[in-house]
Write a structure and sequence with these properties.
The protein has 368 residues and is an alpha/beta fold. Helices cover 44% and strands 14% of the residues. It is built from 17 helices and 13 strands. The strands form four sheets. The protein has a five-stranded parallel β-sheet, with helices on both faces. Strands 1-2-3 form a three-stranded antiparallel β-sheet, covered by helices on one side. The two termini are 25 Å apart. 48% of the residues are buried. Keywords: ATP-binding, Ligase, Nucleotide-binding. This is Asparagine synthase [glutamine-hydrolyzing]. It holds the Pfam family Asn_synthase.
Length: 368
Amino acid sequence: MGSGSPDGRPQVQGADPATVRRAVETGDPLPGTRGFAGRLDGRLLRDVLGRYPLFVDGDDLTSWAFEPVQLVDPVAVPAGHVQTEDGFRRRWSLPSPSPSGGSRAIDALQSALEASLEAVETDGLAIAFSGGIDSALVAARLDAPLYVAGFPGSHDVAAARDAAGFLDADLRVVELDHGALEAHVPDVVAATTRTNAMDVEIALPLFLVASAAAADGFDRLAVGQGADELFSGYAKVANASEDPRLSAETVRGARDEVLQTLPDQLERDALAIRAGGVEPVAPLLDDRVVEAALSLPDSLLISSRGDRKFALRLASREWLPDSVAFREKKALQYGSLVARELDRLARQAGFKRRMDDHVTQYVESLRG
């Protein structure tokens, strides 16, 4: 927290100050980083996708931190904004390039993925792995142990074991139970300052995987975050014209709408992983991958037969068999069974489903 390091150097996470300074000067939203946030030249700033969390203390812009727990009234700095004399102004917005289809688009995506993954240092690295296309692609290109969290019999543990076999990779299973959930809900709530059920259900397995990796001596955790948003992994995007949750009528428009939710999600995930004792690494959110994804047409986001993340699946054939590349995956909170079991714990504790948002009420009861 505060106004800079003791020797006066800028405090910026995620990228070197010179690159960030050029991005501020030119307005380039994708300057070749995996995101950034912090204080530079006396101004707070956060990249266009909010890949690094940053907070101020209420209206006091002189009091800031990378973690909300360090502030009395933490308020997230909006993604793509730079501090001004009276608040924040938007400096960066995602580009909207004309769509580029065919094999050229897949080749460009493959090149971006290859460059991003090759740039990841594997010393001290573990990989959060669920057996789906996103984490499998990361695991196929990085030589590091894989970690999956889930209850016995969960979809994610089974899928991870199957995919790890194809990759001939070392898989470590973090087997969950009710005691682990009850014990660590307060840790997740403290780190993220969130108590709503869905956020906690997603953050818990990330925190527990991160904690297991940290206990084994690793200090970084590679994740597949961002792929669902960038490449249209959600059913509501595939059915954009009919889904009342979205205002867009096209797949690309719906994808761009969903991308606006990323800063809030990435903030939660990064804080949960850091609370577990490691630093997140998100190669699928590299600027080069983002740029390639933004140029994809509707037909490469959703195939004619309804395959979501179609371009990513086609591009991954370079490194993965189709049985992994085209595997459907459940959302983390469901694939790990954390959502189901947290609901069970809530009901056992007297928070019945007829109550308004009963799991959130249960989480709040555990805060202490």
